[in-house]
Input
Amino acid sequence: MKGKRKNKRTRAVLLLLVVVIGILFIRSEWLGRTIYPIYYKEEIKRTAELYKIDPLLIASIIRVESNYKPEAVSPKGAIGIMQVMPDTAQWILKREKNFGTLTMDDIGREPEAGIRVGTWYIQELLRQFDGNLVVSLAAYNAGPGNVREWLKSKKWDGKEETVRDIPFGETRQYVQKVLYYYNKYKQVHKNL
Output
């Protein structure tokens, strides 16, 4: 009899422990920040403020693009922490005079340079696509020309609910991942 009671107590304690850990796991901001970290916070905040973009959006793009690795280079040749294609980076550097002496090497090595160029580009895409975040994210990944064609030919209507209709699988997954991290970051990093 004593053995059965002890087993019941042990199971009850273990169950209670699992429930407490589960609650901490779900509700803990500390644990959330550990699972969904943001690096280069000051650079992101400074640049986001400059371009009037939510810093959590920039952090989400960085997480998906390079996982905060400033010297990342994609198989397709995209460079830097925000993985901007070299042709796009050159176009941005020529178009935006506020970048001064910023070079392609800077974008591919220095977090702040990559963050500035990528944030400027997402701001430009938001301008081009009338503030539509989902369409702008698709354009960041697939290029604005492709996205305009999809919208024009009605292959995709540009809505979040129809992301599954994006013709490029990579872009479809990219948009879904950025939106996922954006929502997670808004939950656990309320004070960025």
Notes: The mean pLDDT is 91. The CA atoms of residues 39 and 178 lie 16 Å apart. The chain has two domains: 1-35, 39-188. Residues 39-188 form a domain with the Lysozyme fold (CATH 1.10.530.10).
